[in-house]
Amino acid sequence: MMLHDPPKTTTQERRIESGRLQTGALIIIAFAVVLFLLVQARFILISLATAIILFSLTSDVINFIARQRIGPLRVPNAVASIAAMLLIALALLMLTSVLLAQINTVLVTTLSYTERAPSAIASMFSWLGDDSEAAIFNAVRSIDASSYLRTAASQASGITQATVLVILFVGFLFAERIWFTTKLDNFFGDKQQAARVGKIIQSIIHRVNYYLLVKTVISMITGGMVFVLARAFQLELATSLGIITFVLNYIPNIGSILATGLIALVTHVQFGDANTTLVVFIIAAGIQFLNGNVIDPMLMGRALRLSSFGIILSLAFWGAVWGVPGMFLSVPIMVMLLVVCSHVPDLRPFAILLSREGLPDTEQMLNETADRDLFKKSPKA
């Protein structure tokens, strides 16, 4: 029986292996540091991310306003820029005031529901038996709803601070807008490379803007239909349910489920009738299914082209890091990653994984996107 000595590794192989280990360790450390910063600076970063997304809207809106004519004259670009900025600030302040008003209404109404909620919720599980129903009743009754409501009210007050910070960020980004092309040219030192990066940025802006436009339209339709449904069944929180449904529909997949469950829960707590609750639940689920699985894909077309599994992963990650605001920002962030990875050769495999059919953007699509804005017109027209 012959014994063989194990193959000896050369010095170069050991260096290569050591380099791989060091690279892997540095990647893990860098990821941990970035994750730590994302969590610790979440308020500022969420506000900044929101401001960047809203600022991207100004590009297409400014081009649209600048194309309008007053008699023989066009609207000056400076006037269009100021008008776009004012529109965004006004929309943010109005949305914040409406949300705060509806949150206050929900909190006040929820306090009046706290006494009858335990029995109403427990009755939904009566089919499990008396013991199970009693256990659920005791569990729900033991929840200190008032403390949760106080916490929700204190967190809601932070919305105003975030809105002001977002408007300030948008204003400063707006002031830097006119120098962006010059900075890009000087940063790369190559006008051709800078132009390509500019096209990538334009593609991101166009895709995110189109997603937000379509999502806003669909969310408005869904919220309006839920409002009509709630009014038809004389629910006390009809307006609030419509607005909350509108907001929740920006959260992919989970938002529609939460909105449907919420209207069913409100119906059952208010009426305590299982048949009425079931009817409302079925109609609300039908509305969400129609808008989410028929109208949404039809309007989105190939504009989004994100992997459903990738959306869930992005939703879970950003929800864990930034909470509910991260869920709202998960899809725009994923769109940005998809476009960037599509046009960086080393990252293209990630774009294939992030795209729905495994077909990321091509250079031709990049040029087509750069030649038009959200309103299907050339910015130079």
Describe this structure in words.
It is a single chain. The chain is an all-alpha fold. It has one domain (36-370). 78% of the residues lie in helices and 1% in strands. The chain has helices at 11-40, 42-66, 77-113, 117-123, 130-141, 145-176, 180-188, 191-232, 238-248, 254-271, 274-300, 308-322, 324-342, 348-354, 363-370, and strands spanning 69-70, 73-74. It has a two-stranded antiparallel ribbon with strand order 1-2. A hairpin with a 2-residue loop joins strand 1 and strand 2. Helix 2 (42-66) crosses helix 8. The radius of gyration is 26 Å and the shape is globular.
Question: Main beta sheet, described?
Answer: 2 strands, antiparallel
Low-confidence stretches: none
Give the termini distance in whole angstroms. Answer: 85 Å
The 3D shape can be described as: globular
Number of strands: 2
Q: How many structurally independent domains?
A: 1
Give the strand order of the largest sheet, numbering strands 1, 2, ... along the chain: 1-2
- Mean pLDDT comes to 78
Question: What is the N-to-C succession of helices and strands?
Answer: HHEEHHHHHHHHHHHHH
Give the proportion of residues in helices.
over 70%
SS field, number of helical segments: 15
Structural class: mainly alpha
Strand-residue proportion: under 5%
Quaternary class = single chain
| Rg over C-alpha atoms, rounded to the nearest angstrom | 26 Å
